[in-house]
Amino acid sequence: MKEELQKLIGVEVLQSEPLKNHTTFRVGGPAKYFVKVKNKAELYTALKAAKAKSLPYFVLGGGSNVLVADKGFDGLVINTLPGELSIKGKIVTAFAGNILSQLIRAANKEKLGGMEFAANIPGTVGGGVRGNCGAYGKGVGDFVKQVEAICLDGNEFSLKVLDNEQCQFAYRESIFKQKPEWIIAEVILELLECSIAAEELKKMDAEWEQRRSKQPLELPSAGCTFKNLNFNNQEHEKYTGWQTNGKLAAGKFIEESGLKGMKIGGAMISDKHANFIVNTGNASADDIIQLISLVKTRIRNEFGVQLDEEIQYVGF
Fold first, then answer.
1. Which CATH number does the domain 85-197 belong to among 3.30.70.20, 3.30.465.10, 3.30.1300.10, 3.40.720.10?
2. Which pTM does this prediction carry?
3. pLDDT (tens digit, 9 = 90+) per residue, 266-288?
């Protein structure tokens, strides 16, 4: 099968590749088959090959927002690498595998801005758009002009071009989360002219230092584990004063429940930032799942609030 896939895709295919080496959690079993792609054509070909061989497939970007099962993934993992990137005027066109933070800094050199809020968020352009990642009340989706996606319709893949409205962006949501068979291949962003690019670059660097002081970046994690909640005056009246940018921080509930530092196996709720579950060195995916379940149950019982995960599960 490995040789057949390589022939169909035209790119080297690895077998039994440990996925813990490709995720920021440093957790997860092997992919039965694993291939790296660096452009739309290779991504399209890899998806078609998986379908032709009746293999389950998963498209993995930077691995910063996923939890892979201990048993791994019994199919083809397609890893998108940095590739084509162009900047013309205020328009940035990027292959989905490009690193989001690098794109924002490349745009800064061309005196374009607007997305500085995401300059220190790990992951790829495709992953950032899929999850509409953001910070400080802003989201990447605000700057998306167009997305080209490879969409499975029945047994055939086709290219679909979606404008911003069709992407259905919401807080940490998009149409691509609702339709996992729609794979982001290329993103077109429309940024803003920035006359103070040098100053904005200094702010990005300062924000990175601030993150390092407040978040457990020295340990493997998937970033924030749970989504913040939309503040609703009626539902959350007793939590008035906790809201920031119209959101209630999931970490605030976890901290108030006294769960900071809680451990199951090698997984721990960070004592630096309560919305981070970290791998202290030997965590299994099962350890992390159990800790997530404990947090959700405790917060629901103590505060009447249901937390939802930001992370995506693979292979479960």
1. 3.30.465.10
2. 0.92
3. 999 999 999 999 999 999 999 99
What confidence tens digit (pLDDT) does each residue in 87-142 have?
Answer: 999 999 999 999 999 999 999 999 999 999 999 999 999 999 999 998 888 899 99
Looking at domain 219-314, which of 3.90.78.10, 3.40.50.2000, 1.10.10.10, 3.40.50.720 is its CATH number? 3.90.78.10
Closest by CA to 223, choosing from 276, 272, 267, is: 276
Max Cα–Cα distance, the chain, nearest Å: 61
Measured distance CA(47)–CA(148) in Å, rounded: 15
Distance CA 90, CA 101 (A): 17
Alpha-carbon distance of 187 to 39, in angstroms, equals 12
* Cβ atoms 22, 66 nearer than 8 A: no
Tell me which fold the domain 2-80 belongs to: 3.30.43
